[in-house]
Structure formats: structure tokens, C-alpha cells
């Protein structure tokens, strides 16, 4: 099954627990799940663990779920966010990333 980002946002939102503190819940959840991704990377780099693709996929899925719910609360779609990010990166790095463009960012002038 292939989903657009917006379809994912709509479908995954049905499992959200609506309450007065959703933003805090989702923001903390996002950082927690991001930390789990970081821990998998740390273990692969420093503890000799193999990178388990299925675990990375699971944890990134949890990151996406929290991100989608924060976007919904903000009145944004994931596709809007993705498009804005690509536009920003195209302006910042029109020829792809390079160190010189990173140091002398055109969007900071």
C-alpha cells in the first residue's frame, strides 16, 4: 500500500488520543522516538551492533506519527511541510550541498 503524506496524516490521525495537552504529548513523544532512532545509531557506531533496518523503520514510523499529529494541530499538512522544506533547501543549496554554501548561506543575508 502506497500512501501520500497527506493520506498518511489523515489515516494515522485516527489513532490520536484527543485531549487538552496534545501538543505537549506529541512534542515529547517526537523527541522520545527521535532519541530511540539516535540510540540505534549510537549502538551501531560504538557498541558493535548491526543496524537493524526493521527497527529503524519502526522507530522512524513512530517519529512520523508524532510529526503528523503536531502538523495537524498546527493546521498544516505533511505535504505543505515537505514542499516548504524542499523549497528552502533548493534556495540554500541550488546545486546540492557543499561546504562553502553551508558556511556562507544565502538565506542568512
Could you outline the blueprint of secondary structure elements for this entry?
Elements: H1 5-13, H2 22-46, H3 53-73, H4 78-92, H5 99-103
Helix pairs in contact: 1-3, 2-3
Describe this entry's structure for a reader.
- The protein is mainly α and 109 residues long.
- It has five helices and no strands.
- The protein has helices at residues 5-13, 22-46, 53-73, 78-92, 99-103.
**Most strands sheet:** none
- Give helix and strand order, one letter per element, not per position: HHHHH
Roughly how many Å is the radius of gyration? Answer: 17 Å
Helical percentage: 55-70%
As a percent range, the share of strand residues is under 5%
Low-confidence stretches: none
Please tell me the overall pLDDT.
95
Number of helices: 5
**Distance, first to last CA:** 44 Å
Please outline what is shown here.
It is built from five helices and no strands. With 109 residues, the chain is mainly α. It is globular and about 45 Å long.
